[in-house]
Amino acid sequence: MKSTFTFLIVFAGLISGNSQNWEQLSIPESPARYDDVFFLNENLGWAADGWGYSVYKTTDGGQNWELQLITNEEYLRNIEFLNENVGFLGTLTPDFYRTTDGGENWDVINIPGVQAICGLDAVGENTIYGCGTYFGPAYIIKSTDSGNNWEFIDMSPYATQLVEVLFVDEQTGFASGGNNEGGIILKTTNGGQSWSEIYNSGIPGELVWKMQRLFSNPNVMFGSVESFDPLPGKLIKSTDDGQNWISRDVPDPFIQGVGFITENHGWMGGHNSGFLETFDGGETWNDTGFGWSLNRFQIFDQNLVYCSGQSIYKYTDDLSTTDISTQRPEEMKITVAPNPVQDKLNVSIDFKRKDHMVITLFDESGRLIQQLSRETIDSKGLKNYSFDFPYQPGVYHVLFHYDLGYQSKKIIKK
Fold first, then answer.
1. Residue 92 above 50 pLDDT?
2. 320 Cβ neighbours under 8 A, 6+ residues apart
3. Between 3.40.250.10, 2.60.40.2550, 2.40.10.10, 3.40.50.2300, what CATH number should domain 333-413 receive?
4. Which of 70, 73, 84, 367 has its CA 20 to 30 A from that of 409?
5. pLDDT band with cut points at 50, 70 and 90 for residue 165
6. Burial of residue 241 (number of CB atoms within 10 Å: 0-12, 13-18, 19+)
7. In terms of Cα–Cα distance, which of 314, 322, 321, 320 is closest to 61?
8. Is the pTM value of this prediction over 0.70?
9. Buried-exposed string 125-139: b where 16+ CB fall within 10 A, e elsewhere
């Protein structure tokens, strides 16, 4: 049964160098973050609350929100609609949802081989693409009949992980994630039957998390490269439809969301940052101090942008005057002890909920040494790990990647 609530719009303003501002919409606060937001037009949209396990709908541009769905402890990763009735909801479990009545009711679709869906993109009247997963393996799903039938495409020849898909039309599109050489962007011109690599960051362990094509010039593309301490995150940009790329460092290593309204003016953010703003194409960045844990930007034009993070945010000149204060979610407790280490690396992780965990070891320069663990966490609670550590004395970094974010721990080997 569907429950209905109504929430009024208020905002916490951010001066952004012109008459436009970001506002925070008064959707219920997430226990972690809204992993995705999708608007079919400027008024009709949906938001997926990751650890809130909830889907909300608005018909007035975010002024009011209606609770449509609460799932059974399934992290909600993304949401996308073909039209006002047919939509799809990806989770970080094998359960994949479809609605044919605008979100009033949702049916579970189980596609053989799918462990989770990390990216969705609807294109044309009936075609929907999806991909997974950030924790591996890599695959594409595709339907050309509004989700009645699905094709599963094994992407292991090209990638170890996939996070995002972005299609120009039913045949031409991009997929991003990572492989053993670095963060990648792949391109297809035949509906996903074959792919070519058009970008590689060259640093194993990095992921290209999000992609964007500039609404006013589709030859201009942007991407966010999620890295790890001690390396910076990166903005990548192409002005020739992905043939060549330039890279600019971003203050947050764990960068994820990217959204530009001109070639030079845009924002980025991630699990550990709010709106980082640039007016010079990423040469310099300003931490606005607004928002938190950004993931998805959806840009209609230079005057209307939506973004998902700890809340749902809107870029507009139609502002009210009441501030919203949000409390940042508590970081997962991860302990490495003793540190310095000797022959064993001992780790304790206090899982708050069902989760996924990928533990990876890097040297001081950021060179990948070994993936120590990759697993699905079926229940909350404390879990202990002990890994052999037969490495030379020195400084190392252990990266912990889970559904809600990243942590990097510096360790010393005696």
1. yes
2. 9, 10, 11, 23
3. 2.60.40.2550
4. 73
5. very high
6. middle
7. 314
8. yes
9. ebbbbbbbbbbbebb
